[in-house]
Amino acid sequence: METGPSTPGGPAVVLGLQRLSFAYQGLLEIPYDTILQQHDTLEVLDLSYNLLD
């Protein structure tokens, strides 16, 4: 499996998919600015296990 950087909130490439993960970070708001910076190539967005309403 091909993987890229695994820093939280950082992009990673998994099996050719551009993935952005914010999982398990206790977020109260969606980080729109960071997400929009990746909008041209982003295919998978993980916001699981946060405190979002």
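The record above closes out task 2.4. Task 2.5 opens with a second protein, given below.
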Amino acid sequence: MVAEATLLPSFRHRCVVVLSGLLLMFSLRVFAQLLQAWFPVEALPPFEAWASGALPYWVLVICQVLIIIACARVIWRLHVGLIVPSATTGKVLLILGSIY
């Protein structure tokens, strides 16, 4: 029991680091698309290459910002110990994400 308690903070820390990295990559992609929409940059693909047209762009941006906020909240709660990582939940979410 003691060994599990000492491993949990380390595992939780790794989860926070991995999730933060993924959120950073997603946030950079959202920012790059916004940049390309407002101030086109030659180093990035044209805006039309980013947008699928399934949603109006302003709706997409709002959804992406809400996703970033929700993810940041989960990461913070995990960091401070309000959420405990679960291998079972992780496997279920991985399967659902793979299907999606």
